[in-house]
Specification:
This protein is α+β, with helices and mostly antiparallel strands. Helix content is 18%, strand content 32%. The protein has an eight-stranded antiparallel β-barrel. Strands 12, 13, 14, 15 and 16 form a five-stranded antiparallel sheet that branches. A three-stranded antiparallel sheet has the order 9-10-11. Helix 1 packs across helix 2. It is elongated.
């Protein structure tokens, strides 16, 4: 019988534009969601189903050939399950009428034009990951539905690019159109392999987020657009901006910046305190997510991190930005204009590195989100180098 847990497709997307695969936690499709594979007609499908309170059932499925989700919602009465495809507002929705079997479910799919096809769905054991990569193992264990979609995805090779003397090869996902680059020259093969694995995994996470955004039982489709722009490559630094605009069925469309900042030598994600430190004592390393989007333990408590940002960092950055950009940081002329003099907006800035310095993007409440992402908010390297961070880095 289906688990008494409602399917939460978009919980991650509504707070962050990238799926996070935690070290532990429940499956996105519900801890006991039923994952099945089988056929509709002669097409192979993968299905996830979970039960809400009472007899309501929610889920999604995709045809293996197309890999794009179709929302499902319906009712379970005894061993009979009726599911309707697509958004609730649609006037003509295909229907799956199923009976429970020892192996799973069996029945019929029919659309409003009278076309029908037999349905056979079986409970499955998710196949083992074909690689010993820890990210794939976690994806298999925590997100089996996404694993079954992703484990044999073939990325499309696109154009190559020379950036700051290094050769890049762009890869894209044919369905979502999302892209990421790979390093192909300028570093030793072991370094490139480690970094490229992080970059590919980040792309896989974004693809999963895209598919989650595209389907909801209460929302007719979604929008998910993303731009990846390399910003800095040096012998020991990689920085790239990743900007995502999305509308996944929440109260409002949203957007966000989630750059990648890596130490090439260690293939380790850099925290801002690794590069810039204005506190007392030794700088700490604090990163919630690594470059691929996996949650990690930095060994520093969030309370310690926030106390530093409150007490030292935000006030210092406000002064530094005012000195570097007096015109842009001046008092606004109108009441509804952006006020960058508010110290709170500089507490948790988005950041990436460039040839000229560190770009830091202030963080505003939703009503003032248009104030985020100013193109001028650069902290020159000459200033940064006066306050070196905890990592031993050769800065531009």
């Amino acid at each position: 019988m289906l688990a008494q847990v409602r399917l939460g497709l978009l919980a991650v997307l509504l707070s962050l534009p990238m799926l996070v695969i935690a070290a532990d936690g429940e499956n996105d499709d519900g801890d006991d969601a039923q994952i099945l594979t089988g056929t509709i007609g002669n097409q192979t499908v993968v299905v996830s189903l979970a039960q809400d309170e009472g007899d309501a059932v929610y889920g999604r499925y995709f045809y293996q050939q197309y890999r794009q989700d179709i929302a499902l919602e319906g009712t379970l009465k005894g061993d009979s399950l009726v599911l309707r495809e697509g958004p609730e507002e649609s006037p003509s929705r295909p229907v799956l009428t199923l009976k429970e079997t020892p192996e799973g479910w069996q029945g019929n799919w029919r659309n409003n034009k009278g076309k029908s096809a037999p349905v056979v769905l079986r409970n499955i054991e998710v196949p083992e990951a074909a690689t010993d990569n820890a990210w794939w193992a976690r994806l298999r264990n925590l997100h089996p539905y996404d694993y079954l979609r992703m484990h044999d995805v073939t990325l499309k090779q696109e154009e190559s690019q020379t950036f700051m003397g290094y050769q890049l090869q762009w890869l894209s996902d044919p369905i979502s159109g999302l892209r990421m680059f790979q390093l192909t020259s300028g570093y030793d093969s072991e370094q490139m392999a480690r970094v490229n694995q992080l970059l590919r995994t980040r792309l896989y996470n974004e693809i999963i987020s895209y598919h989650q955004c595209m389907v909801s039982d209460r929302f007719e489709g979604g929008e998910f657009e993303q731009q990846v722009v390399p910003k800095l490559l040096t012998p020991n630094l990689l920085s790239a901006e990743i900007f995502t605009s999305y509308d996944c069925g929440g109260a409002h469309p949203d957007f966000g910046s989630s750059p990648i900042n890596l130490n090439i030598q260690t293939a380790r994600t850099l925290g801002l305190e690794d590069v810039l430190w204005v506190g007392q004592g030794k700088a700490f390393h604090f990163v919630e997510l690594d470059g691929s989007g996996e949650r990690i333990d930095s060994g520093v408590s969030f309370d310690t991190f926030t106390e530093y940002r409150d007490t030292f960092f935000a006030p210092w950055l406000l002064q530094a930005m005012t000195a570097a950009h007096p015109t842009e940081m001046a008092a606004p002329q109108e009441e509804d204009e952006c006020d960058y003099r508010d110290v709170s907006v500089w507490k948790y800035p988005t950041w990436y590195m460039t040839e000229q310095g560190i770009w830091l993007g202030p963080s505003f409440a939703r009503v003032m989100r248009a104030c985020e992402g100013p193109d001028w908010s650069l902290l020159p390297w000459a200033v940064v180098k006066q306050h070196p961070g905890g990592a031993s880095l050769s800065l531009p």
